[in-house]
Amino acid sequence: MSSSSLASLPEVALQPGKPPILRIEAPGDAVSWAAENREALRARVAEHGALLVRGLGLKETERVGAVFTALAGELMTEREAFAPRQTHGPRLYSSATWPANQPMCMHHELSYTLQCPGLMLFACLTAPDQGGATAVADAEEVLRALPDEISERFEREGWLLTRSYNDEIGASLTESFGTEDRAAIERYCRENAIDTDWLPDGSLRTRQRRAAVVRHPVTGRRCWFNQIAFLNEWTLAPEVREYLVDEYGEDGLPFNTRFGDGSPIGEDIVDLLNTTYEQHTRREPWQAGDVMLVDNIRTAHSREAYSGDRQVLVAMAEPRRVADCCPSPEVTRR
């Protein structure tokens, strides 16, 4: 990459508590601008872990998809979704369906899959009245901040995700696996190290053990990379958790996480993880037309509670095999 291509963009604004922000003059053609500046933009993502581009002025879903493709190349199809999404174009999705008054805590997208996106792309078409930021946190810093006894245990054992699929809450089988065909689902699960248990009522429960700490595929640095806190029962609002436990039982929650050996993760540990994330969180309210690029392995992201209408489109790109990044690859299997 030439130094002139890097110099063609304005300086990135770096402020405490905020993600890196690049403010530009609205281009005549956002797609052409994205294609021409792809290398320079991606270099800044590699440098900072995330980049908010302000000034593109995107207003239409079709343009968003074209800009994302110009920036990232071929986009990924989501598999194993934990919550429903709407599809707005080829591999272009809405934000996950989640109550507006409940935050989606820090996580790395699809970190429980064997092949996860290396890059996340977000575009805001409608900004909420209040809240709703897609905040970010540096996974290297989070790992360094965690107590050694916790990070070392998770690095040694990995983490266990349990899921229960039903027709009432969370992503359906079709939304997660792209099919309701039992044989096809079982084949996918076998190929992706997921244990399955079909219940008499036809519902499915799964278990999958994954790495909690990985090495970044480019820098080689260790990153806290998982959804241990976000998908744990203790991150749910107390009244939501109480309802789900009463309705489905402790073993029937739509999702939950455990230590890699199957032991429960206490509320104190979940609180510590979420507190550590908060101490390293950087946030900036969305403005209509904004685009954000996030290195999904180096940088966790969240969605904060909000009021008013909010439309943020999402795409995933650059698939990475998690086992290739693991200090201890064996934890990707049972």
UniProtKB/TrEMBL annotation:
<dbReference type="InterPro" id="IPR003819">
    <property type="entry name" value="TauD/TfdA-like"/>
</dbReference>
<dbReference type="InterPro" id="IPR042098">
    <property type="entry name" value="TauD-like_sf"/>
</dbReference>
<protein>
    <submittedName>
        <fullName>TauD/TfdA family dioxygenase</fullName>
    </submittedName>
</protein>
<dbReference type="GO" id="GO:0051213">
    <property type="term" value="F:dioxygenase activity"/>
</dbReference>
<keyword id="KW-0560">Oxidoreductase</keyword>
<feature type="domain" description="TauD/TfdA-like">
    <location>
        <begin position="32"/>
        <end position="314"/>
    </location>
</feature>
<dbReference type="Pfam" id="PF02668">
    <property type="entry name" value="TauD"/>
</dbReference>
<keyword id="KW-0223">Dioxygenase</keyword>
<keyword id="KW-0408">Iron</keyword>
<keyword id="KW-0045">Antibiotic biosynthesis</keyword>
<dbReference type="InterPro" id="IPR050411">
    <property type="entry name" value="AlphaKG_dependent_hydroxylases"/>
</dbReference>
